[in-house]
Amino acid sequence: MALELKRGEFDLAVQLGHIRTTQGKSPGRTRVSQQEIERLRGTDGFPDALRERVRTVGTAEAAQLIATTPARFTRLARTGHFTPIRFYLNRYRAVVWLYLASEIQDFATRNPDLLDGRLPAGLRARLDDGEDWRARNWRGRRLGILLRQAEGPWGRTAAIASLLDPVQLAEVVDDPYERAHLERLRPEPPHGRTESLAVREITDRLLLADDPDEILWHRMSLALSLDEARASGQAPRPDGDRVRLPRPGSPGDAPATGAGARPAGWTEPRARPSGEWSLPAPPRRDGAVRHRAPSGQVTRGLLARWRLRRASPSRTG
Questions:
Q1: Which residues of 28-172 form beta strands (DSSP E)?
Q2: DSSP classification of residue 57
Q3: 26-57 as b/e, with b when 16 or more CB fall inside 10 Å?
Q4: Which residues lie below 8 Å from residue 126, measured CB to CB, with a gap of 6+?
Q5: Whether 23 contacts 30, CB under 8 Å
Q6: Which residues in 126-158 are b (16+ Cβ under 10 Å) and which e?
Q7: 82 vs 98: CA distance, rounded Å
Q8: Which residues are CB-contacts of 27 (< 8 A; sequence separation ≥ 6)?
Q9: How far is CA 65 from CA 56, 58, 134, in A?
């Protein structure tokens, strides 16, 4: 192709924002303009510099890249100092994580003291407890990519919903029509659907949040994103099966029994102005910069919005 990249390199460059795309003729399809191609081809070091930005390495190559041992690199990856960009299953159906070579090198430059010698006591304690942040950090990074690629509020909501299992999803999204709409908009899994059933089962498990704190975070993010999606428009429903909510003070708002009572099934509508809140990224451990909060602690502002939402009457339709 004009950018001299392999298919996997091109896809990763688009996901990371190194290549700008525009909407194609078909929904969900993107294209690269001729101007963007000329811009990239005119940059210094093309195409090697672009290839280097999307080069991925496994554990052994990453360890060699920063002059440490594979065992030390794995320990640092488990404690969240490196965030995987991709994974695949080897012939033994074991998960093999891949990392961006540029990020590995940047980390080594910033944290040379962690590459050899005795690990800090706090890291050793977390490893002894069996902590492993690789899958969770990968899900967080993938969600960020999906949110940038999503089309509209319902698309963004579907991206968040894809990280929760059906039971968790049904508890947050109680409308079956909305769940069906989110399922139609669900992002494609990273490796398609051509693998064996056993491989798909392993991949599907990696796609879902599994830590209690992570699940809580995504449930709250989904609830807030769902409010914004509802404010933008109702999820599709079969003809004749639309829920109509009378406005307070309208003729259809007559009390059912007693003063101030509402008709059966009436729900107070609430509207959240689009853009009132911006969805934060899920908490993740990223090098020595961020630290995991104790169980149950999340961003204060987000938790306050969650409590406010739970205290308010639910909205249907």
A1: 30-31, 56-57, 86-89, 95-100
A2: E
A3: eeeeeebeeeeeeebeeeeeeeeebbeebbbb
A4: 79
A5: yes
A6: bbeeeeebbbbbbbbbbbbbbbebbeebbbbbb
A7: 10
A8: 151
A9: 11, 10, 19
Q: How far apart (Å, rounded) are the C-alpha atoms in residues 171 and 314?
A: 12
Nearest to 111 by CA among 293, 299, 261, 289: 289
Q: Give pLDDT tens digits for 231-275.
A: 999 999 876 454 443 333 444 333 343 434 443 443 433 333 333
- The single residue listed with the structure tokens 């963004």 is 156
d(CA 246, CA 145): 39
What SS3 state is found at 152? helix
Which of these, 166, 161, 131, lies nearest to 143 by C-alpha position?
Answer: 161
pTM of the predicted protein model: 0.75
> pLDDT band at residue 284, thresholds of 50, 70 and 90?
low
